[in-house]
Amino acid sequence: MDNKEKDYKPVNTNKVSENTSPFTGVAGWIDNRLPVLRIFKHEYLDFQVPRSLTYFWSFGAILTFVLLGLIATGLVLGMHYKPSTAEAFDSVEKIMRDVNGGWLLRYAHMNLASFFFIAVYIHMFRGLYFGSYKDPRQLMWIFGIVIYFLMMATAFLGYVLPWGQMSYWGATVITSLFGAIPLVGDTIVTTLWGDYAVGDAFLNRAFVLHWLIAFLIVGVVVFHVIALHMTGSNNPSGVEPKDTRDTITFHPYVTTKDLFAFLVFLLVFFAFLFHMPNILGHPDNYIEANPLVTPAHIVPEWYFLPWYAVLRAIPDKLGGVIAMVSAIGIIGLLPWLDTSKIRSSIFRPIWKQWVWLLVADFFLLMYCGAMPAEGIWITLSRIGTAYWFLFFLVIAPVTGWLEKPRFIPDSIHHYMKIKDQKVKSEDKSK
Length: 430
Fold this sequence. Notes:
By secondary structure, this protein is mainly alpha-helical. 65% of the residues lie in helices and 1% in strands. It has one domain (53-429): Cytochrome Bc1 Complex, Chain C, CATH 1.20.810.10. The chain has 17 helices and 2 strands. A two-stranded antiparallel sheet has the order 1-2.
């Protein structure tokens, strides 16, 4: 053998060796060639999570199921919908009246969108309260904010599609806001409209973008979940797991808990779906769009109302747009604005009060957004907007510097032991 040949090493093909799969039969044969079952088992069934997780951590799974439900119902609705100003409203009415089960599909899609936002808001404020945005989970938090922006876009475009009065005028008002952007604003508006007003071209764009962004959300959700699995879940204590006493396997413990939470969520959803399907919508959207008749009070869907209040709180159009976008975007900067090393608000007595006040402020802005832009409602909107930015820009960094945290347990199982002792002592006192 030539001496030069001795210097070469065998090629590493990275091929999966035979019989390495934990599965047998057909599943094993497939898994040895495409290890998706092995990955699923490792990343979900055997995945270790903190044992202190509560039902608030079930909303991630709930949101996944709701997203799939939205895509499934939207797919069927899209088969019957006609994206034309002359036919859109009538096609929706036909779905409601003539398509088998069409009324159920449309109401399910409408209410799933609302419940999607309800679950997202609970998910976000849970993360904020327990410090799920802190190191090393900053990227996961940013992915979450990106998902929220995409949700807002696809929800707005979906709201346009029925081509009712509020669809038309809401689209006109919201898209006109882009005109406030210096230099390129008018170009953006004209590009969105495809004309000189909201009409047929815009409706076609809305239909296509509604679908495109929906699938884009799925893609970002995948990255959100990957980031979660790389860093692991946060927990109410805010303490990282140290040994097996602090963790449990995802299956069957968390899967069972998530399934129960999802069933309760479904019960509430079905109560709305079958007994009050229109309570979260606007009655004007059952009137066909008429550019010559302006509604007395133009409002977006309820889940946009806090940001709508921020928009109206600023008298200048451009300033209002900047404030509205900044009010959402600043949430993504919280990992760097909050200077405290303690994650969970349970051990931060001062911070906890500020967070609950932020939740109250969110509902105040939501209510103000539904009211006419006049008098006391403008004043309250400005107060609410001021506190929103004050919380992130001043309260978050200053509280982290000045606050003295309570006693923090050194491990999750220690936290659970203290919690159990507290419950037992409360039971004895009763």
